[in-house]
Amino acid sequence: MDFGGFGQFMSVQVPEFVADGVRWAAMTNSTIRDLDKAVPRVDGADKVTGKALYVDDLKVDGALYGRTVRSHVPHAKLKRISLDPDFDWSDVVVVTADDITGKNVVLLIEEDQPALVPEGGIIRHVDEPVALVAASDPRRAQAAMEHVRLEVEELPAVFTIEESVAKKVLLRGDDNVYKRFEILRGDDVEQALASADYVIEGTYRTGAQEQMYIEPQGMIAEWTDAGAVRLVGSLQCPYYVHKAMRELLQLDEDKVIVTQAVTGGGFGGKEEYPSMLAAHVALLAKKAKRPVRMVYDRVEDVRATTKRHPAPTRHRIGVNKDGTIVAVDVDVLIDGGAYLTLSPVVLSRGVLHSVGPYNVPHVRVVGRAMATNLPPHGAFRGFGAPQTTFAYERQIEKAAQRVGMSSLEFRRKNMLREGDVTCTGQTLKYSVGSAQVLDAVEQQIGQAPPKGSAAPPQFASVKRGKGLAFYYHGAGFTGSGEDRLKGRASVAVNAGGKFEVRSTSTDIGQGTFTIFAQLASAALDVDIKDVEMIQPSTEKAPDSGPTVASRTTMVVGSVVQKAGAQLKQRLLAFAEESGVQSGDVAELAKRYAEKHGELEETVTYHSPPGVKWDDATYRGDAYPCYGWAACYVEVAVDDDTHEVTVERCIHAVDVGHAIHPVLVKGQIEGGTLQALGWALWESVVYRNGRVANPTMTDCIIPTSIEAPEMETLVVEVPYPHGPHGAKGVGEIPMDGPAAAVANAVADALGQPFDEVPLLPEVICRQVSATAAE
Amino acid sequence: MKIRMQVNGAARELETEPMRRLLDVLREDCGLTGTKEGCGEGECGACTVLIDGKPVNSCLVPVGQVHEAELLTVEGLSDGELLTDVQRALVEHGGAQCGICTPGIAVTAESLIRREKNLDHARIRELLAGNLCRCTGYQRVVEAVAEAAAKRGGAGDE
Ligand code: FES
Ligand code: FES
To answer: By Cβ atoms counted within 10 A, which residue in A144, A239, B25, B95 is the most buried?
Structure first.
């Protein structure tokens, strides 16, 4: 069989980005060698012309359409899978767990999640895959899917964290706890709280949030004659899929090839779940002996894939009359759902951020990730930090009010500065932009607000309020994570004499390719047009680590930069040896390739010197550095409908250094709106363990009308170990705006609001309850 | 049913079931994959195309309805290798991140610039409300469209 089109895609890089001089010339006639300039993003022209190929756009000759048969019950024993005898199965391929010859797991941290629930196995959530079908016509595949019968014996299910904590049903071990963390600092926290002038206590609830990338998940698989499986899909982490497929299919390293197609957004949602799709198309394609494509529709995507962990956080803070914080005690709970997936890591980040960027001498934090029968919750921008940030920034605001200080004054008094020590005992040695972001916000508040937000609805009467939030976000993997990962990337002269950046850090919209091209061209001292980016593939690039955790520019970017510099040295040495009279590095590359062919420099990441972390005690340098941010909003709350309009939004973020100011602002603004959405409108409703609003019509995200005109302030306090001083920016804008909004709504209505989303019905319920008292 | 239409300036004739979604016909039969599907229910605008100059969600349109109509998709915007002012502004201002919403936004923006003079940010926000973008927070999109509109002099003639 000839799968020409597909094979071709696999072997071809996506080179047009940089190489196409024509469209570039149309864009700009300047030489783009400098950093810090808003060079047009390298994939920009392809994206605005519709030429960029996403997974559903790839032509694959002879490919079948795959569909997934799901459990439809939240907790049950799967007794039997049978095929409707009245249905014509002649042109349909069916796969069940029996067809798995390797290991039936989707490997991540643990091996608890199967690719398909086997007969006799336990169904743990309502959208769990149990069988797969494929046919050459999508409608046939759909019909076949509906004719697979499941015989189940239902078990009692657990749908909330509270039920899980109460051990109503045991889903895991003897306590339903996936993971527990504890942080202790100073003396006994109860005694310290007892000694404080005031103790403020609250429980803060945040709901699940859907990533709602506009491109649903999709994957294509094809097996080669040599027994290798080629996968291409919409994904963030090629080597995560690679690792999971090697385990599932029991294949050697070179027999699994994972390539990223142009990806229409991820936000964490395409960190882990693509391994599940990969498993399914790989199994189907193997049995069918033909390529198989699977692209979810929106409903399936919202129901089955991961979301932000719902999390109630109980927080107690002790303050003295003079405004000093004495002690903080936090109890963090997150709902992990039906399998462990990434929950321990999400919990870790949530716990580590739960005290906030403040000096607190006495601390106790306990965090637990709990098992339930909801579809697993997973990675979403911020990764546990937005949940705990919401809690502590509500508490800080209440504490400021209690001691009679302004929002700014109380935060300034207690904030961490250079040389201060965090709750894990980390001394902050550099790149602490705490004072700068607060100053920037304060200054901007004094400026006239920009016009341009959509005209607010004509309220009969409104109440207005203002809210501030201040926070930090650890950049890169937690603790010793980066040393375990050993992220690698290469810069090479390819056979054609062009420069090529080879990494598996994906561009999911945030601009990785452009930043890497900038960093490589600057390190090589060549024009950015001489640098090509390859589409990330395990076949062509080393493992750069996952594209997560605000690490891509800071960690992998620094590796690209080093590899570029080393490559330049090699080329200069070549010039000297061979007597070539040219200092033009691009010219040298051409000469080198003519004579010797390819030349590649690969560099491995090492944590900066002096970073120490103890996983056992959870003490030490939790992150190599932090981003710092402050967000200020003004809201109007309609007295009748209780709808909240964000009338002003100022967001200052310390990013170390903005290698590409436009991309950085784009990251901040996109994250800000996702956070405002989480604060006010985005609600995932579960009914009997299943998402009851799985469409874009019902599970809404903000439009351009709800989005306020953004006042984005890029603050730069350089990080000495980041490329040109840069540190992470991807996640931090998601952390704080929700607290700023809740603080503003509380200010407007004169009573506390301690949960998000603050839907009109939530505000209505509370306002009516207070009025009735 | 035999459907005759103009797609990006070229006449096309095809034989197909009239109830098929225009989106599928464009992507599958015409090979125009620039038009995207984000929801299939008229909510996201990723599938926006211009039918006789007006932006429409092609996932909601049975192809039988566009018989004899004039269609413009993202592929028909640029003149050969030259980007339009809208496309160019979207790239320069960072209005395209992951890019999946971008074809729909570029097409919608083109139609509103042709239609209306004096497009300020507030008006652009209203007119773009049918095109969801999860990446940008809309700020750079709005700035890009405003710049392109200003360059085009708000010429509301079409
Ligand atoms: S796919 Fe047509 S509006 Fe979303
Ligand atoms: S750029 Fe990604 S959805 Fe708009």
So the answer is: B95
